[in-house]
Amino acid sequence: MLLSGYNNRDIERLHDVDTWEGSEEVAHKDMDFSSVETYYDSRFKDSRITKCKMTSDQFFASNNLTFNFVYVDGDHTALQTALDGLNAFKWLETGGVMAFDDYEWNYNGNPFLEPKRGVDAFLAVCEGQYKLIERGYQVWIKKL
Length: 144
Description:
alpha/beta; Rossmann fold; 6 strands; 33% helix
């Protein structure tokens, strides 16, 4: 999907929030996240990027910035996905875009450990406050 008028070279600032500890997913259990973090650090030496090594809850509890784009791809549990969406929506500017990754991802058929239920809960709570841009493997909305 391409959004007209957006150019990643025009990014003023980017806040990357991650614990660098992985998650419950089977694919993550065998990963060495300290090496993943070291690789990340070696790749992103740009003053526009702020690495925030913390949970999204911690980030939003201390945040006072607004954003014109938010990409939610963190803890995949339904509960945390809903919380991430609600927290981010509060700081999303009118006309801003939010994207949820892994909407159709499943974890051994356990809906509590899947983002879809959380995204759907967020969409229901915020109904009428956004325009749906895309719903597939990702969900994209624009804040009205």
